[in-house]
């Protein structure tokens, strides 16, 4: 049995269509009214979008119902599916806590409420029934004010048992006019001892080398090998890892074909740059992590040796994985011990 690590999954896009539809039926029937039936909703929810900006609008649909009261419901089902269907041993779940607070409150009260959100998600993620090690990545947001983003960084530092890193989400096209501000925020995060990742070099509009030195991992980063391969040696020297989410690039219109990912993997492997394969928005895409693996193999983008390398890389770059090895090594040791015991009993 293989066990996997998922390093890039959004809480807002992690809810599979069937779970979301049932929640709407029971709690928000008004949200089902635009759709004739479940099939119509699923088609709307999972269809490709023309741009990343259009794609991100779908997050607002889920964020609006991921309230304090509803978060345990969604997280329990998320972890159940991740354990039963994906064989996940480790999951980093990212989201913007501010966007789970009531939007009718003033900004200062919403900032204060973020603490409750982190605690609710943290407690709900500790599931003995489904033994997955789950940690939070708190996302700053490119459309939120500086004061909110700084509060998110400070909140992450206050909860080391629940939060393993900070991120920047919300669409990379927004970075340019506030780049100095975001550089400062990432610098502040590093000063506080926080791990960092960030949505960067996902699209041709999101290429900002000024942010690279502040990141320990790079969310997506596919435009580096595609358009700026001269940056790969310094990425390798820093030990940075790309979080590549194959299905996303078709859903957002960033790539026309998965075949365009072949040079991403080839150039990164040649340069010694690590890649972790991730899902990004498993529910929104209606996919599971093993499906991403199988798709890359089917399209001959990587081979089994490269796949195994990427799976190992995911555990090595996991911000909170407490072991030196991935679970396969631990299971192998347990099986060897069991064999030794059985042999001893037999004698």
TrEMBL record:
GO molecular function: adenosine deaminase activity; metal ion binding
Family the UniProt entry places it in: Belongs to the metallo-dependent hydrolases superfamily. Adenosine and AMP deaminases family.
Reported cofactor(s): Zn(2+)
Coiled coil start-end: none
EC number: 3.5.4.4
Protein's gene: add
Domain Adenosine deaminase: 5-320
Protein name: adenosine deaminase
Gene Ontology BP annotations: adenosine catabolic process; hypoxanthine salvage; inosine biosynthetic process
GO cellular component: cytosol
InterPro entries assigned: A_deaminase_dom, Ado/ade_deaminase, Metal_Hydrolase
Domain of life: Bacteria
Broadest EC class assigned to this enzyme: hydrolase
Keywords in alphabetical order: Hydrolase, Metal-binding, Zinc
């Amino acid at each position: 049995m293989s066990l996997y690590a998922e390093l890039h999954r959004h809480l807002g896009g992690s809810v599979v269509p069937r779970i979301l539809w049932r929640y709407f039926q029971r709690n928000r029937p008004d949200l089902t009214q635009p759709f004739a039936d479940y099939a119509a909703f699923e088609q709307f929810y999972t269809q490709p979008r023309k741009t990343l900006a259009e794609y991100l609008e779908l997050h607002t649909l889920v964020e609006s119902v991921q309230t304090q009261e509803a978060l345990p419901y969604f997280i329990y089902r998320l972890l159940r599916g991740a354990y039963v269907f994906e064989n996940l041993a480790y999951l980093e779940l990212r989201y913007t806590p501010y966007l789970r607070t009531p939007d009718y409150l003033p900004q200062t009260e919403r900032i204060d409420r973020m603490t409750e959100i982190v605690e609710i998600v943290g407690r709900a993620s500790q599931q003995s029934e489904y033994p997955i090690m789950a940690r939070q990545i708190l996302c700053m947001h490119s459309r939120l004010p500086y004061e909110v983003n700084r509060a998110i960084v400070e909140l992450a530092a206050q909860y080391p048992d629940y939060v393993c890193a900070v991120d920047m989400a919300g669409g990379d096209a927004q970075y340019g006019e506030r780049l100095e501000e975001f550089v400062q925020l990432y610098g502040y995060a590093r000063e506080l001892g926080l791990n960092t990742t960030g949505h960067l070099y996902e699209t041709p509009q999101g290429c900002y080398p000024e942010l690279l030195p502040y990141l320990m991992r790079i969310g997506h980063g596919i435009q580096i090998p595609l358009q700026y391969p001269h940056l790969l040696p310094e990425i390798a020297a820093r030990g940075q890892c790309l979080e590549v989410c194959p299905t996303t690039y078709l859903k957002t219109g960033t790539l026309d074909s998965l075949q365009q990912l072949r040079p991403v993997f080839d150039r990164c492997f040649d340069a010694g740059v690590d890649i972790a394969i991730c899902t990004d928005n498993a529910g929104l895409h209606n996919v599971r992590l093993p499906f991403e693996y199988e798709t890359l193999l089917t399209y001959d983008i990587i081979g089994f040796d490269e796949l195994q390398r990427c799976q190992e890389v995911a555990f090595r770059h996991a911000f909170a994985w407490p072991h030196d090895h991935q679970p396969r090594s631990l299971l192998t040791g347990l099986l060897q011990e069991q064999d030794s015991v059985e042999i001893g009993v037999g004698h």
